[in-house]
Amino acid sequence: MKICDRIRGIISNNREDLIIIVFFILLGYFYLGTNISVDHVSTPMDLLCNTRINFSLVVLQDQIVAPMDLLLRYPGWSNTGIEIPLFNAERSDILDSLIPNWNFARDSLLNGSLPLWNPHRAGGIPVVTVISSSLFTPSFLLFFIFGGGVGFTFSLLIKIFFAGYGTYKLCRTEMAIFPSIFGGIAYMMCGFNASWLMWPHVTTSMWIPWILWGIILLYRERTHKRIFFVALPVALLIFGGFPFVVFSGLVLACLLVCWLIFIDFIKKDWISGLKSGLLLFSSMIAGIGLAAIQILPFAEWLAQFDTSWRHGGSHLTVNDFNVLWFPFKYLHDFGTNIVPKVEYCGYVGILTLLFSIVALYITLKYRNKVSLTPLSPIFWVLLIFLIMIPVFKIPPFFTFFYQLPFFNSSANTRLLVLLGLSFSIMGGYGFNAFEKALNEFNRKSYPLSKNYIT
Fold it and tell me: Which of 232, 260, 264, 369 is most exposed by smallest CB count within 10 Å?
């Protein structure tokens, strides 16, 4: 009975979180547009095109989200007699690298051995020691448990859930429930996360809001548990497997810490700011230490290759701001389907942008009354403009970013992930302000009624 009472107490004390968790899981399931109880398969990129295209596959006996259309173009699979129109050819890395490594790692673990070396790819390649394998992730855990197409589909679902729920919890530190839900949905469905969902990009990006949330919690209450709650997401971000997104997320986390130090300078004194900064930066460094098990061997392996040919830059210009609300500006025509180009997807949503404009208006008009808080629009507006410089090649400042070592090693359009998160928080802030104004209007117009938005 004591165990039952304890379970009831946990459920009662965390009712809101449990409801929100179920909500984001169900939303992610319907977002993928799949039904794993039927013998159909959903082709990829339905996410951006808002279409559901199903093709009967007797072999699979399940409905999954996977690049099966591309797989059937590969030698060894093209003669199976199964016909699926090519939906998108921009998924080759998944079939060439990620899924083979995951299959090998799963088989090795089931046979009781560590997946140290995969001899079946390009004469052999390390697996567990290479960060891009994304083995220390919830996505691989679900793939390991369920295997095959169903496991891969669940690996995508867990990414959507963590991205949405983490952003919800981040927004919830200062916003009401509905604006926080709005922020979570906006980030989990932004163009970057939708277009890169099958890659390690999102296995990495889903942890960025968790790091920011952990930093805010630790800033407010300095406990050992909260130090760990910053360090763990930092380690998981690194384990996610895409270095440029890791770097981008850590830069954003550092900028937030600097913002919190500035808040302490203004509200308290410089000593308090330095203490806060030291603690927050130390907790992040601890997270990097937790990930050293993969960082060190990965760095040693990567040193064997010449990466000097890699250069940064952006596919977008100042004329491309409309990719934020129009994902179909740049398209691939594969003959059977026309889909957005993955590298150009920066969609954040028209509604998100409108609420962001509300937040910007409040910041400019009532700048003397806008409080300095971790999620203050002052910080996020400055951040958005800063990110836009390298993404849209805003002259003359963008050339400075390309001189920085890491910014000059990958396409800077991938910073769209930070724009997606920033606009999601700004949109949530604008939604929150709109909700407060609506409640105030309701209170004044109907003094005996209750607020109908909570």
Answer: 369
